What does this fold into?
Amino acid sequence: MAQASALPVFRAPGSGEPVIRLAAARKTYKTGSIEFEALRGVDLDIDDGEYVAVVGPSGSGKSTIMNILGCLDTLTSGSYLLAGENVEELDEAELAAVRGRRIGFVFQQFHLLASLSAWRNVELPMVYAGVPRDERRERAVAALERVGLGDRLDNKPGQLSGGQQQRVAVARALVTEPTMILADEPTGNLDSHSTDEVLGLFDELHASGRTIVLITHEQDVAARARRVVHVRDGRIQSEEVRA
Amino acid sequence: MNWAETVRTSWFAIASHKMRSALTVLGILIGIAAVILTVGLGLGTQKDVSSQISALGSNLLIVSPGSSTSSSGVRAGFGTGSTLTRADAEALGSKVNAPDIAGVDAEKSSSQELTAGSTNWTTTVVGATPSYLSVRGRSLQSGTFITAKQNSDQASVVVLGSETATELFGFTNVVGQTVTIDSQDFQVIGVLASSGSNATSNLDDTAIVPLSTMAANLVGGSQANSVSTVYLKAKSADALPAAYQEAKSVLLIRHNIATGGTADFTVSSQDSLVSTATSVARTLTILLTGIAALSLLVGGIGVMNIMLVSVTERTREIGLRKALGAPPGAIRNQFLVEAGTLGLTGGVIGAALGIVAALTLPGVIGSPIEVSGLAIGLSLVVAIGIGLVFGVYPATRAARLAPIDALRTE
It folds into this structure.
């Protein structure tokens, strides 16, 4: 990891430097004796406040990019700097802390805990971040109001529609003020009305200066982003930037 | 993440899976209650047996004629009655040679037919000395016991066991009545208080006459001076070993047996009887404990089953918590507290039920149940241990899963 030690500089978000810098990123999966190269040298910079969609067919490596960006998986070679921090050098506990502090996840399957109420779900990342209890409740309520669910605080996920559940997940993603919101096929399980609701929410968040990375295979979803990165066969094939 | 948060998180998990939590607790609870009850039953029986033997008299040494057991297991001459005499008994009462012996009661017994009016009753007639009551730990229900004067005068008096009195007269208030033994009339001067029966003999079915009377008028002949048993009472439980040695050396000298020679008498203690009987009861306790431990193990396997299922179905939850910033330690601690709480709850409720049952059941089934603090403590430790081992091991494995794999689990 020669590149890793070359860039030890810490960059604050909003300084104009990229919050994400993926350099010569390679990822190889091994299943028994079979090796599969999911990423074959990816370079990707994302600046603070950008709204980026990573698009590609299944098997293209976009899910691997999502896992790497989300610190859910580590690279085989290459480097990943998140807000100036070299993620490849961190141990498991430090990675967990980075995920909790830097990244807000929105998953296709929502991944809400069925036994907890909406605000308890939103509170969860703050529990692990060590935020005091009173403040947690306050911030969770504010985040749910932000996504238009101020009247559903005590509902459990089962009592909410799919669109509402995904909005709870968005509230959970933004409650920690993360460096980046990372959404993996966030509309994959939603009807068109709910899709519009959630994507509208992302537009608003982007307008208020949040960095959003959206992984999707749907062109019309990707079309909402300002910058679209096309991935194919483990490489970045093309990029387009819209006004 | 501090412990208060961990406990709160674990509590949410327990409360939101009520059925599963209840089943886990139930499995442990039944095992613990079973252990406490069966161990209690075994210990209760053990205590019951030893207390019945203690009823024979406390700090007691028993000297019987005959040598100790030969290698083939045959006791040569045991109980034939010629090697132990009344003079031996008097020597054992010496305060100089046997200072640790507080009381001596020489006895000579034989089975005789007693007659009162037209009623016959065959029982063990015991010729005893006035120290019988104190040495054997007995007391009188009514009347008086044989006095030293009656013993030296070969008086024709008898003290009846309560059951013997009832058999002969139909009631126990029989002081002043006359009983015929071997065609001789004996005046009833007292009735023994009931002491309960033990496994080998009925202590309430007996008739006591002065030893001298027994020797002169009932058995007599060449057997006149021999006694069948000498009971010795040591000064205290602590003095028992010393009293044992003194009795042995006094008799060895009187019988002219060199040190190392084969003694023609046997000194045995209450302790050896108790230990024989309690070892039987202990075997019973071990057997019962084994069965209880098995039931606890089965309960534990049930708990493991529930916990494994729980971890499998919660793998996605674990993955999500890790994605949201939970370090592996926090996940492990959550399951640790969760499983420990379930184990402890099951253990405490099981112990409470076991104690309540141990206190109420003896009235129903008639067997004593001894509540053992050790059994309760140990089973609580085992309960928590079951929760931790069977709950945390799978959880630790899940906590080590890459979060993305855990999240993808369907």
Remarks:
- Chain A has a mean pLDDT of 88.
- The beta strands of chain A are 18-31, 34-47, 51-55, 77-82, 85-86, 103-106, 180-184, 212-216, 227-232, 235-241.
- The longest strand of chain A covers residues 18-31.
- The domain at 49-74+89-241 of chain A is CATH 3.40.50.300 (Rossmann fold).
